[in-house]
Write a structure and sequence with these properties.
The protein has 145 residues and is an all-beta fold. The protein has one domain. The protein has no helices and 10 strands. The strands form 2 sheets. An 8-stranded antiparallel β-sheet has the order 1-2-3-4-5-6-7-8, with no helix packed on it. Strands 9-10 form a two-stranded antiparallel ribbon. A hairpin with a 6-residue loop joins strand 1 and strand 2. The two termini are 31 Å apart.
Length: 145
């Protein structure tokens, strides 16, 4: 796997770009992130990954969790729910009423229609629980703790 380089905004810990080494001494821009004035809250992700190009806007819930991503037309393309410990379930397709491969046969279990865990989001979204970035180490990057 090629290394990924992160570019920070210089005002906080916020990642504003992700670059991937191409294995031949060059780098390819994968994603750019636009943050709110607090330099922490993600607002949009611009993807340059082939087959996933476009601008995606973050939706947040009342706890500041990332609840979903919409594309430029406002169509929901990914949605997320969290358990109390921050484990995320990802929806990135049609909910058809039929249990997915991780079914528990419990009609109230989100695993019946959601993929678990966020490894990875189809679009490469690294933000999740309480709006924090999910790192390659498998932990949420939470500043000021």
């Amino acid at each position: 796997m090629d290394a990924v380089r992160y570019v920070y905004d210089g005002l906080s810990y916020a990642v504003i770009q992700e670059w991937q080494d191409d294995g031949q001494g060059g780098q390819t821009l994968l994603r750019e992130f636009i943050h709110a004035e607090d330099h922490i809250t993600p607002v949009a992700m611009i993807s340059y990954v082939p087959g996933r190009t476009g601008t995606y806007y973050y939706l947040r819930d009342e706890r500041s969790n990332i609840a979903g991503l919409v594309d430029e037309s406002g169509t929901l393309v990914e949605s997320y729910v969290y358990d109390p410990y921050g484990v995320v379930y990802v929806w990135n397709g049609d909910i058809d009423g039929e249990p997915d491969r991780l079914s528990t046969d419990d009609p109230y279990d989100p695993a019946d229609e959601w993929e678990f865990p966020l490894t990875p989001s189809f679009l490469g979204n690294p933000y999740g629980f309480t709006g924090h970035r999910f790192s390659a180490a498998g932990l949420y990057e939470t500043p000021f703790r």
